[in-house]
Amino acid sequence: MPQTTPEQIERLKYDKGLASYEDIRINADCIEITNSTHVIEFMIQIVPNAEPDKWLSKQRLIADETPTVAGLLLFSEEPQIHLPKSGIKIYRYRTSGDATRETLDADPMTVEGYAYGLIAESVRRTAEMAEGIQLLGPDGLQPIVYPREAVHEIITNAVLHRDYSINDDIHIRVFDNRVEVQSPGGLPGHVTVKNVLDERFARNPKLVRIINKFPNPPNKDVGEGLNTAFESMRKLQLKDPLIEQRENGVLVTLRHEKLATPEERIIEYLSTNDEINNSIARKITYIGSENAVKRIFNKLIATGLIERIPDRPLARTGYRRGRRFPKDLVKQQA
What we know:
Layout: H1 6-16, H2 31-34, H3 37-46, H4 52-58, E1 62-63, E2 66-67, H5 69-75, E3 88-92, E4 109-111, H6 115-131, E5 134-137, E6 140-143, H7 148-161, E7 170-174, E8 178-184, H8 205-211, H9 225-235, E9 242-246, E10 249-255, H10 262-270, H11 278-285, H12 290-303, E11 306-308, E12 319-321
Parallel strand pairs: 3-7
Antiparallel strand pairs: 1-2, 3-4, 5-6, 7-8, 8-10, 9-10, 11-12
Helix pairs in contact: 5-8, 6-7, 7-9
């Protein structure tokens, strides 16, 4: 699609990573970041022998004696004064369906402040809100559990990689059965929904790099944030986070839905494949133990659903459909 106006071309530069809005200078007094509580605490702990103004200039967080977007986000006590839609709004909807005014529980929470504190406070409030939800289970009402690691990584990712040129907050919606985190702007650069776990691209590289210098940083700066979220969900046997590219931003959903049992996943695999082995089974069931998978295979063999492939050496042990494998589940291989 042709991009012809100056505004469209500027937007394309931000989307493709040719320019970063974090470098834009903001008409504010430098003292807001050279003498803030946050920068003083940071300098004392991290670079005690440097002066804030000189260090911030060297890091390109001050340009021509003017703070940049990144500088304000990292060290201003109230960056939202100059970047009014750079905070987070948290909503609680008492429903498993769509968000409506009728299902909104009380007024949305607004969290503001510098990026480091914004992440910590938003994670705390979101986790506490989600952990207050109870669902009916076999033993009565039970609190639902989301891994805090997943909540932390998704919110951190939203704060560090959102498009700050878009005048909108990050929106966190807590439902009875899911948590949604919506951040402004599309996936940056060459990152897509399909390759987001494998590719690295920082829309705001200074923000990402400097916040990693804080004590106990929210990001590890090794490109593993979303992967950690996926792994922590799988450890609780919950479905993978759902990542969607939408017209007005990126939506990540943590679903409180259990994965299929390991037995079900093995049967599902054999419905489209002629055989399976221990290595493949560990990958699709997210079980790390070879012996644990062997025990699952033995249970399935005892039911007649699978059988060991005969006349194979131990190193090439494999399993195929057994005599009682449901014929209606067998699908033609692609």
